[in-house]
């Protein structure tokens, strides 16, 4: 089955309910039609040019001639960028809402715990977690494939450059720290189920026993994406981590030390000139929110089982 059919089946099926009227998705079928029409125009123009100038001369310039297509650039990249922005916003808000239910503070936590005595919402939260993971993966694959088709039709690297631009603007959903938070939530669910794996848990895996702690997301086509959980400053597993606007993760103490502020003051007290210790990007001027949630899970390290509980404070761009 081709990916276009698989994607449409996903949108129309039960797992696609996250992509309803309030959740955007990649318009894969429509964008593919835009590329098909461009391919037809290209073939027509090439045929006309061949009849006038001869095949040999025109064949050498045909690749360069269609590297930049004004019609496609207007309909394609502008729309795709808007879709990527909407998808990233939808994903972050849905994950944030899910985490707030899981880690409600103070009195809210007490009320949630009291409610669970009569009704256990964990199954519904697990299902929502699975839907969000699938939502991120399917839209990421759709965007990757449509950009690859663009480059193939136009014999260019504009699609690849656009993907790099999205990553720089933090619109690529698979590079979002919210996906790492979703993985941390998976660890909580897995621990509460006694470590039993199921459909959801087969997508995420986390290896904390090696020198470099890594969280892995497995795609349906056996392609995996790895997230390093090592703090670039102390070179240890992130503890009480902060995610800056650029996406780099740090321990709270390390981030505060790099910004020359006290730990109790937090990153908010950093000066406007403070930069990310890794990429040197000024992140203070960006708009952030602080998300607090408790991640507790069991890990096997040097033959000893221990419980790790860390308060994750994620500061990231809306």
UniProtKB/TrEMBL annotation:
The protein's enzyme class: transferase
Gene Ontology process terms (BP): protein ubiquitination
Superkingdom classification of source: Eukaryota
EC numbers on record: 2.3.2.27
Keyword vocabulary terms for this entry: Metal-binding, Transferase, Ubl conjugation pathway, Zinc, Zinc-finger
Pathway assignment: Protein modification; protein ubiquitination
GO molecular function: ubiquitin protein ligase activity; zinc ion binding
Domain SPX: 1-164
Domain RING-type: 231-280
Any Pfam family hit: zf-RING_UBOX
InterPro entries: BAH1 (IPR033326), SPX_dom (IPR004331), Znf-RING_euk (IPR027370), Znf_RING (IPR001841), Znf_RING/FYVE/PHD (IPR013083), Znf_RING_CS (IPR017907)
Catalytic activity: S-ubiquitinyl-[E2 ubiquitin-conjugating enzyme]-L-cysteine + [acceptor protein]-L-lysine = [E2 ubiquitin-conjugating enzyme]-L-cysteine + N(6)-ubiquitinyl-[acceptor protein]-L-lysine
PANTHER family: E3 UBIQUITIN-PROTEIN LIGASE BAH1, E3 UBIQUITIN-PROTEIN LIGASE BAH1-LIKE-RELATED
Listed name of the protein: RING-type E3 ubiquitin transferase
